[in-house]
């Protein structure tokens, strides 16, 4: 039998005496209820525990903070995982808290000053005669009448489930709720400010109940991600999380609220959490850790305004935005620079009166925004079509419920925020087109679509059913295995970099023999080595004298281990033994680009083909870092010596010691410690320490101009006039004499058009204002797909970063002390 009150005693009389003389006995650990005469005091340990032992309610301090909060967390999970916080806006600063229940059923938290409540649950709608507060086994903290131990929400005068923080537990409902007073309550999740501060943060996750209700993440009240409408089995924009047997959870979606429960057993511990960096996660507790079963946003198509109205996004295609058939870009210039946010417009107006319009089927889509669309229940697809044709403002329709194949969604506004999936995960959207456009739209897509239909019926459907049954069986099996290895996130987590033994590396490099030394990288020497007979490796050895290098070393490991791209140098493993810190890379037989452009290796002349190939490769590698990997990475030290060349002269970006990961929608950051290399740093970085993907674009522009001209942007020791490559390039480009600046030895392989295009793109990249520089996806598109150079925007005169710095900063002789500028010796080649 668990103890309920600390002052329990064998003698009832003594008990009564105690109650009279000490009006405030407090709860002791193990109890699940709080009553007016038994508050919960913060002594650092005491807490309520739900009757089945799953949840615990009490005072806690988040890891890394001295503040005290009342919260709920899992009782049996060792890493305190807080799912609810009462006083998230008003923390207590000392161990003095007192959570009590007033006689009329209001929960309050008071601190040292017993009289003013820093948090209160508000007075309950109906008066309670004998209230108690209880923590239930589903994690709900409720106030109810003492006698009624029911767990049905009608018996609750107040419940914490109505006021969630950042976590949605099974059984909790998101959306709108009508209180008994008639007031409407909006139930959303609001992220913590940071992992140590539960105060309401930037991101809110909830249900927008306008039109056809949709899931949304808002960032500072602006839409940030749209999950789309419910189609009976899943939310249109969340095709991976399905209802029922082939999913982890089963949804209960009803008009204006959403709840869920785990599919297999109620003992499975799952939660949805809106995290402080803007990601919504579905987590499952398995194998003694939280496994991220799904999260969003995860690719660029999850950005709500990436592709504007009447265009759709495809995540694995560059450029990502495509106009709907028979639509064309609204702003061709921006579209050419791969900015699709203006969207598209109809080529031929609809002809409603003559009733000649028809429909084009855009399959596999995430349906457009439904917050202003009309919902019509109980209509067949044919009925929907007729309904749409009969209303001149109707622009598209789709099926409302794919389970019952009934009802429709009707759009009468522009179609926004669409994605086309490539895995058969989406739905059909019927877009209304003028008769004149129907033929062309169908010509391009429909034939393939029709044959697609036939294949669908005869082959794919039976296969899909088989596959589905197999999936059901498999998912039952995998539940038995308790998530041991299914989720790719879990694989990621387990993905460990191979650890090499120090002796292996010593053997491979001849005990770091000076003969094998390839050069000096940012943090120490780099050696060539040979593993076994075949594999050549490059070993970067962190110098023991370097104190600052350890962080960069860790940075490089964690970062580069996650990156895989043919234009990034591949990390094979690492070695941490005693004092030694080694990184083992694939060996790049041709060394660094720097050497070919400016160094001794000029004997091997790089012809234009090779240079063009290098420019494109570096652009692709950088695009991957900025946009396509699951992380957003700013390299911060892109330069010729960090571009390595393999035996076929393919470029690979190396040296990630300075790189930074950007989270969520974070787009720029400020550092006090400006690191980088003269000549490659953008003005805003040198001046203000601001770096973003656009500062990498600047460095890329410099690199392009260096590759074309074969001249360094800034040669130490040269005068300003001689070394201002950017300015000279711009002037020559303006005067149409670009080719004069080009490395003279290019010979007949030179493609004039390609060179001019590269010069122009290079100049656009080194514009003074970051917003005038294109993104890497625009850069790549301009490099490969724009034939007519005059379509590209005209670059303004570039402003040399370093010159700016010299002139305006008026720093002392050293010129850099206040900026803590840490330039790398550009003479030393960073082999890796
Ligand atoms: C608190 O943080 C430290 C370091 O970040 C970590 O080692 C520890 O496990 C954390 N404790 C909890 C309870 O999360
Ligand atoms: C706790 O708060 C209640 C109500 O505010 C008060 O009656 C009680 O005396 C307090 N107990 C302690 C030990 O501060
Ligand atoms: C409940 O009690 C508090 C103080 O104990 C009082 O301020 C409040 O007005 C009461 N509410 C109702 C509805 O009686
Ligand atoms: C708060 O209440 C406790 C116990 O009832 C009492 O000892 C203490 O003096 C009170 N503090 C204040 C500031 O009223
Ligand atoms: C609610 O009560 C029913 C029956 O009393 C019980 O089966 C169920 O597990 C309870 N649910 C919770 C969340 O406590
Ligand atoms: C919370 O949800 C409601 C609908 O459930 C929505 O209308 C409202 O905008 C959301 N609140 C915030 C702060 O975004
Ligand atoms: C938020 O979730 C994402 C995706 O699971 C994860 O990568 C990130 O580290 C999380 N951020 C925090 C602060 O927990
Ligand atoms: C209807 O069709 C006729 C001839 O096909 C055409 O002249 C007329 O402009 C059309 N009406 C509208 C409103 O487009
Ligand atoms: C749809 O049709 C079914 C059966 O015909 C009927 O029971 C149901 O009430 C209808 N629903 C609506 C919203 O009209
Ligand atoms: C067309 O549909 C819109 C939106 O559903 C509606 O407001 C409008 O009244 C309809 N027009 C006609 C003529 O039915």
TrEMBL record:
Using the UniProt annotation, give all residue ranges assigned to the region (Disordered). Answer: 794-814
**Gene Ontology terms, MF aspect:** ATP binding; protein serine/threonine kinase activity
- What is a single cellular component term in the Gene Ontology annotation? plasma membrane
**Basic and acidic residues compositional bias: what residue ranges?**
796-811
Location of the Bulb-type lectin domain: 31-156
Top enzyme class of this protein? transferase
Q: Where is the Apple domain?
A: 352-434
Reaction equation(s) it catalyzes: L-threonyl-[protein] + ATP = O-phospho-L-threonyl-[protein] + ADP + H(+); L-seryl-[protein] + ATP = O-phospho-L-seryl-[protein] + ADP + H(+)
Subcellular location, record wording: Cell membrane
Keyword set includes Thylakoid: no
Write out the entry's keywords from A to Z: ATP-binding, Cell membrane, Disulfide bond, EGF-like domain, Glycoprotein, Kinase, Membrane, Nucleotide-binding, Serine/threonine-protein kinase, Signal, Transferase, Transmembrane, Transmembrane helix
Report domain Protein kinase positions.
512-791
Looking at the UniProt entry, the stretches that span the membrane are 455-477
InterPro entries linked: Bulb-type_lectin_dom, Bulb-type_lectin_dom_sf, Kinase-like_dom_sf, Pan_app, Prot_kinase_dom, S_locus_glycoprot_dom, Ser-Thr/Tyr_kinase_cat_dom, Ser/Thr_kinase_AS
- Tell me one GO biological process term: recognition of pollen
> Membrane topology per the record?
Single-pass type I membrane protein
EC?
A: 2.7.11.1
A Pfam family the protein falls into: PAN_2
Query: Where is the signal peptide, in residue numbers?
Result: 1-26
| Family under the similarity heading | Belongs to the protein kinase superfamily. Ser/Thr protein kinase family.
Q: What is the protein named? A: Receptor-like serine/threonine-protein kinase
Its organism's taxonomic lineage begins at: Eukaryota, Viridiplantae, Streptophyta, Embryophyta, Tracheophyta
């Amino acid at each position: 039998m668990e103890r309920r009150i600390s002052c329990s005693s064998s003698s009832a009389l003594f008990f009564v005496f105690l109650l009279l003389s000490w009006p405030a006995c407090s709860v002791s650990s193990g109890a699940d209820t709080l009553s007016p005469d038994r508050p919960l005091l913060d002594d650092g340990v005491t807490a309520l525990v739900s009757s089945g032992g799953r949840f615990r309610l009490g005072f806690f301090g988040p890891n890394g903070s001295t503040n005290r909060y009342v919260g709920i967390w899992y009782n049996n999970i060792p890493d305190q995982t807080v799912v609810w916080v009462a006083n998230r806006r008003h923390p207590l600063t000392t161990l003095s808290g007192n959570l009590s229940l007033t006689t009329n059923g209001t929960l309050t938290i008071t601190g040292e000053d017993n009289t003013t409540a820093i948090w209160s649950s508000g007075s309950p709608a109906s008066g309670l005669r004998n209230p108690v507060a209880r923590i239930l086994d589903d994690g709900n903290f409720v106030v109810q009448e003492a006698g009624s131990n029911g767990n049905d929400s009608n018996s609750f005068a107040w419940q914490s489930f109505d006021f969630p923080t950042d976590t949605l537990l099974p059984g909790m409902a998101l959306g709108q709720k009508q209180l008994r007073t008639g007031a409407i309550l909006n139930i959303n999740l609001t992220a913590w400010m940071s992992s140590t501060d539960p105060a309401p943060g930037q991101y809110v996750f909830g249900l927008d109940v306008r039109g056809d209700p949709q899931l949304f993440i808002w960032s500072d009240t602006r839409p940030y991600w749209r999950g789309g409408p419910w189609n009976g089995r899943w939310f249109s924009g969340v095709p991976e999380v399905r209802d029922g047997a082939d999913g982890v959870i089963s949804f209960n979606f009803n008009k204006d609220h959403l709840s869920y429960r785990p599919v297999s057993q109620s003992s499975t511990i799952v939660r949805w959490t809106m995290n402080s960096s803007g990601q919504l996660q579905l987590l499952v507790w398995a194998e003694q850790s939280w496994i991220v079963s799904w999260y969003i946003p995860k690719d660029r198509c999850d950005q709500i305004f990436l592709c504007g109205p009447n265009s759709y996004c495809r995540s694995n295609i560059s450029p990502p935005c495509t106009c709907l058939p028979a639509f064309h870009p609204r702003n061709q210039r921006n579209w050419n620079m791969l900015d699709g946010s203006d969207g598209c417009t109809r080529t031929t107006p609809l002809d409603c009166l003559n009733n000649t319009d028809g429909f084009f089927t855009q399959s596999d889509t995430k349906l457009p925004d439904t917050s202003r669309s009309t919902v019509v229940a109980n209509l067949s697809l044919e009925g929907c079509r007729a309904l749409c044709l009969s209303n001149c403002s109707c622009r598209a329709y789709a099926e409302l419920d794919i389970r019952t194949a009934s009802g429709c969604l009707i759009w009468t506004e522009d179609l926004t925020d669409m994605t086309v999936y490539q895995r058969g995960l989406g739905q059909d959207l019927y877009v209304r087109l003028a008769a004149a456009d129907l033929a062309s739209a169908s010509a391009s897509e429909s034939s393939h679509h029709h044959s697609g239909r036939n294949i669908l019926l005869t082959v794919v459907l039976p296969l899909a059913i088989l596959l589905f049954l197999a999936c059901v069986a498999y998912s039952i099996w995998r539940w038995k295995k308790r998530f041991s290895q299914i989720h790719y996130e879990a694989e990621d987590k387990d993905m460990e970099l191979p650890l090499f033994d120090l002796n292996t590396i010593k053997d491979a490099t001849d005990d770091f023999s000076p003969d094998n030394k390839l050069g000096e990288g940012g943090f120490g020497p780099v050696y060539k080595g040979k593993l076994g007979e075949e594999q050549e490796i490059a070993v970067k050895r962190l110098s023991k004298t370097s104190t600052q290098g350890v962080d960069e070393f860790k940075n490089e490991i964690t970062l580069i281990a996650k990156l895989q791209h043919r234009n990034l140098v591949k990390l094979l493993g690492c070695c941490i033994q005693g004092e030694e810190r080694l990184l083992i890379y694939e060996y790049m037989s041709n060394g660094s680009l720097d050497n070919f452009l400016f160094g001794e290796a000029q004997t091997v002349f790089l012809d234009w083909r090779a240079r063009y190939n290098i420019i494109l490769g570096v652009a692709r590698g950088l695009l991957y870092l900025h946009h396509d990997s699951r992380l957003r990475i700013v390299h911060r030290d892109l330069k010729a010596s960090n571009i390595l060349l393999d035996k076929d002269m393919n470029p690979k970006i190396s040296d990630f010691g300075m790189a930074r990961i950007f989270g969520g929608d974070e787009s720029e950051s400020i550092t006090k410690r400006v690191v980088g290399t003269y000549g490659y740093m953008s003005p805003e970085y040198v001046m203000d320490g601001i770096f973003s993907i656009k500062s990498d674009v600047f460095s890329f522009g410099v690199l392009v101009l260096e590759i074309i001209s074969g001249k360094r942007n800034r040669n130490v020791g040269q005068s300003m006039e001689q070394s201002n490559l950017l300015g000279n390039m711009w002037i020559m480009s303006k005067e149409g004499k670009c080719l004069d600046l080009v490395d003279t030895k290019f010979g007949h392989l030179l493609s004039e058009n390609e060179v001019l295009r590269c010069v122009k793109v290079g100049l656009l990249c080194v514009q003074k204002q970051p917003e005038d520089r294109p993104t890497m996806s625009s850069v790549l598109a301009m490099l490969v797909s724009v034939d007519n150079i005059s379509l590209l925007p005209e670059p303004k005169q570039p402003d040399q970063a370093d010159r700016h710095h010299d002139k305006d900063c008026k720093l002392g002789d050293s010129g850099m002390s206040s900026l803590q500028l840490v330039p790398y010796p550009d003479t030393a080649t960073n082999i890796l």
